[in-house]
Every structure is written in C-alpha cells, then in structure tokens.
Design a protein that fits this description.
This protein is of the alpha+beta class. It is built from eleven helices and 24 strands. The protein has two domains: about 260 residues, Aminopeptidase; about 190 residues, Alpha-Beta Plaits, CATH 3.30.70.360. The longest helix is centred in the last third of the chain and has 19 residues. The two termini are about 15 Å apart.
C-alpha cells in the first residue's frame, strides 16, 4: 500500500480540517470554565470538532466528561492508542501571521498549534481514515485519544483513564522523529519570598509570564523611590544589550517593560527570559530589603544558567541529557506576595528527593522557601523493545534515516501509558517552533507524517 501517495491525494482535505481546528482558540480559560466546559469553551469546542469528524466518517466515538474523548476502529482485545491533544498555549505577542487563522505561505501553514499538537493530531486522524478506507483487517482496536488539557497538567487524560481502558501500547505524535523513548521528569516548583512586603518597598509590582511551560517574552515592573536618572540608566541598559523595552513616569512611580523571546520550557536556552532581563537591570537600582532579595535571587540563580547549578539542582545522564529549569512565572506584589514558579525538567536518573532537599536549604539562604507543586516522574521504554523497533522500522522506510531514539524535556501523553513513546512529527533538522510566535508546520512533512502513522497503525494492529 502506497500510503504516501494516498496521503498526498487527500492534501486538501487534511489542510482544510487543520485550518478549521486552528481557528478554534482552544486555550485554557478557567475564568470562563463551567461544569460542561471544565477547561473553558475553546478546548471543549476543539474536542467536539474532532469527535464530530469521527462520527461523520463512521468511527466509534466517545466523549468523557467534555475533557477528553476517542475515535476508534478495528476489533480485538488489545488496544493501540494514539494520544493527541487539541489544547494550545496562549499565542503571546510578535506574530507576523494571525495565530488563529491557519494561513499558508511558502509551503508552511502558520498558527498556534500547527506543530503542537493540532497539526500532528490531524495527520494521525488522516492516517486513521486512510487505513479504514483501505479496508485493511485489523486484529486490534485502534483509538485516537484526544485530550484538552495537555499544556496545563494532563487533567484530561487523568480523568479519561479513570473511566476508560489503558492502551496495550501506543504513541503520542507530539514530539520528534525518529522517536522519543526517554522523557524527562517534570516538576513544578514554587520559590516563595519569606520577607514581608510593605508599601514602602521600591519594587511595587513585578509580573512576567503566564505559564510555567513557556519562556516569558514580556516582563513589567513598577518601581518607586528610585534615583532621578532611572530613565537614562534604563535606556542605556536597553541600548547596551540590544533589547526592546520601555520606561514611563507615572506620578511618583516608573513603569518599566522589556521584551524577550518565547520558547518551550523544555528548551529554555532557545528563548530569552524577559523576567530575568528585567531583574538584572533592577538589581543595581533597588536597595530595600524585599525588593533586593527578590531580584537578586532571580539573577543569581537563573541569569545565564538553565541548569540550576547555583541550587545544586543540575544533573546529567546519557539517556536523557541535562536537567533544565525555566522560571516561567515571576510575580511580586505587596498583597499577593512574591514567587518564582519554575518548570523543572529532570533527567531519567535524577535523585529527585535528594536534590530537592539540598535546594530547599540553599534557597533559604536567599530568604526563599521551596515547594514542590506537582511532579511527574520520568518515562522510559528501552530501545530494544518491540514497540520502539517497529516504529523505527516504519519511520526508516520513509526517510532512510538510521538515527537512534531521542530523549526530551517535554512531557507528552506517552508518559501516561504503561508502554508508550513519542513518535514525531517534527523531522530531524526542522526548527522547533512550538510555543513560539509564528508557529508553523511544513505541509510536505505533515503529509509524510500521515503516511508514516498509517503504516505504523497497520504494523502495530495487524
């Protein structure tokens, strides 16, 4: 069966459905969440869109509490899972193309979710249709399982698997080819300032970032009781470091902003953290106790170091690489307190409890306390496993790429399965633009991925 030729013949159908899905602004919206839409109207609409497509094509579909669902085909006791998600992170700023339109230019389709994870979801969906339409007799059931809260904690699949069976094996089309068999642990850490904040503090407010899993691209601070030449010093700082930002005087206060560059928290080195940039300037301007403690901690721990070296949180192993830290949300307010929320992506062999204990003692020297808000353990499937070898074999037929399996600091749905891996759909050499402005998917690669997924379904379920 020439799956690539079949996928190419249905390119218009694939792109039309992807555009429709991208046009749904499926960002977590807890302020408008209801019992019927637990994560807000956008994620629910995206889920309903996919399930309706499944119904229209004659698949078995099921909605689990409006947080997740599945589209199923095949017969048999064993179940193959393709775990996808249709929620997306906020669009952020600095887009050239509309983030929720699906505009096509020069062989690329642009939009939030194009590569994470709406594009891969639609590729997997086309693969399901190709296999069904080919009339191939499958000996196992195959489900696309669709989540709506992947970007904010996996609550969707947690609920789903309380009510539905766990796949025997499966994959998540939400990362890189050739295949990812090692996913780092992901912990959410809160570093909270112990010092009481009074209205007399020079730092009135500080805000940077909305999600711990994104590098903040904008930071804003309000300061008071500072030197009269603050504007000149800040403009010099911006010019010296080739940065974009602003400073304005509002009564007896100054409002300061700076722009960075967004990136996924699993690769913070690919972004420029606006919160760290702003703290770095303020460190030489602020002298009151809480203000100085706050910005000094940010600069000392996170400036120029994504590995947590200062707190002894750093660790490396061969199967999953470096541990990384992303200070994704930074807040300071005299009533709400001050904290730095960090996404810790730690190696498979990381001694978590030991490292956290040591770091807790070290942050106390800065006047901070460390709390673990959540923790998802690392996930690993050995390279010699039959699932890994089958998927690698399929991928290599289409690419002649003999690369070894990879590790990732990203967390995919593969980690919730008893035996699952991440399988595409970013090809080697492609830039990873997930969570960035002007996110895109290369159309030719989208079609090739659909063909790979179709053949993978047949190989796993035959």
């Amino acid at each position: 069966m020439d799956w690539l030729k079949l996928a190419q013949s249905r390119q218009d159908e694939l792109l039309s459905e992807l555009k429709q899905l991208i046009q749904i602004e499926s960002v977590l919206d807890e302020s408008n969440a209801t019992e019927d839409a637990p994560f807000g109207p956008g994620p629910l609409e995206a889920l309903q869109f996919m399930l309706k497509k499944g119904e229209e094509q004659g698949f078995i579909t099921k909605n689990i509490d409006n947080v997740a669902g599945h589209i199923e085909m095949g017969q048999g006791e064993e179940l193959i899972g393709l775990l996808c998600h249709v929620d997306v992170v906020p669009s952020g700023d600095a887009w050239t193309y509309p983030p929720f339109k699906g505009e096509i230019n020069n062989g690329k389709l642009y939009g939030r979710g194009a590569i994470d994870d709406k594009g891969p979801t639609i590729a997997a969906w086309l693969a399901m249709k190709l296999v069904k339409d080919a009339g191939i007799n499958l000996k196992k059931r195959v489900r696309i399982i669709i989540g709506t809260d992947e970007e904010s904690g996996f609550r969707c699949v947690d609920r789903y698997f309380k009510k539905e069976e766990m796949p025997t094996i499966g994959f998540a089309p939400d990362a890189d080819f050739p295949l990812i068999n090692a996913e780092k642990g992901i912990a959410l850490l809160d570093f909270s300032l112990n010092q009481q904040i009074t209205r007399e503090e020079q730092l009135v407010a500080f805000q940077s970032g909305r999600r711990s899993n994104m590098v903040p691209d904008v930071a804003k601070a309000i300061v008071q009781h500072v030197t009269s030449d603050l504007i000149e010093q800040y403009e010099e700082y911006l010019q010296k470091n080739s940065l974009q930002g602003s400073i304005n005087k509002d009564g007896d206060k100054y409002i300061i902003t700076v722009n960075g560059k967004s990136a996924h928290a699993m690769e913070p080195e690919k972004g420029v953290n606006a919160g760290v940039l702003l703290a770095k300037f303020l460190k030489d301007q602020l002298t009151t106790k809480a203000s100085q403690q706050f910005v000094s901690f940010i600069v000392d721990v996170f400036d120029g170091d994504h590995f947590g070296t200062q707190l002894n949180l750093n660790h490396h192993d061969d199967m999953s690489g470096q541990t990384t830290l992303n200070p994704g949300v930074i807040l300071f307010h005299h009533e709400k307190g001050a904290k730095v929320q960090v996404s810790l992506r730690y190696s498979v062999t990381y001694p978590f409890e030991e490292k956290i204990t040591v770091a807790g003692k070290k942050v106390s020297d800065y006047g901070f306390a460390l709390d673990v808000i959540s923790n998802s353990s690392p996930h690993y499937v050995p390279e010699e496993d039959e699932l890994v070898q089958t998927l690698l074999s399929v991928y290599r037929r289409y690419t002649n790429d003999l690369s070894k399996p990879l590790s990732t600091g990203g967390g995919t749905y593969a980690r919730v399965m008893k035996k699952g891996v991440a399988f595409g759909m970013l090809f080697p050499g492609e830039p990873d633009v997930a969570h960035q402005a002007d996110e895109f998917v290369v159309i030719d690669n989208l079609i090739k991925a659909a063909a790979i997924y179709a053949e993978a379904i047949v190989e796993l379920a035959k």
